[in-house]
Amino acid sequence: MCPGLAVGRGDTPLARLAGSNPLVESRDVAHLGRRDASDPWYGHEALAASEILDLPDEALRARGLPAAAADSLARLASPDLSGFWVHMDVDVLNPIEMPAVDSPEPGGPTVNEIVDLLAPLVRHPRAVGMELSIYDPALDPDRACAGRLVTLLETLLR
Prior knowledge:
The two termini are 29 Å apart. Helices cover 34% and strands 12% of the residues. It contains six helices and four strands; from the N terminus they run H-E-H-E-H-H-E-H-E-H. The chain has a single domain (2-156), classed as Ureohydrolase domain (Arginase, Chain A, 3-Layer(aba) Sandwich), CATH 3.40.800. Helix 4 (65-75) runs parallel beside helix 5 and helix 5 packs parallel to helix 6.
């Protein structure tokens, strides 16, 4: 998991790119929309014990997407933090709209809902970049999913 490596979890060279300190402090991380609460292997206890803002899909929806975006930005208000990065695994999207992923999970937000969540983050002056991952072009023969992702990026970056 990319965020786990960034906050220094694990004893691997990737988790130690910044030496003895993590690349990112846990208190500066918001983890939004995961739908794996029933998976015992996920590491829920470690996540709960960390300073990471963890809003699984159910909590995200209960809180509301605009409020979750505001909560995330509030974590990033530290004067010591010069910028932040937005990482999105596209398998968080509803597989009805994004089936071109290797591990689709039922439910999840639509592309329009993701725009509502991510637009305040991506458009924030301290946002330094964004990445999308997990898209599998081999599962997208007509490139419809690729088109949805391009539209998502175009909308976010307006």
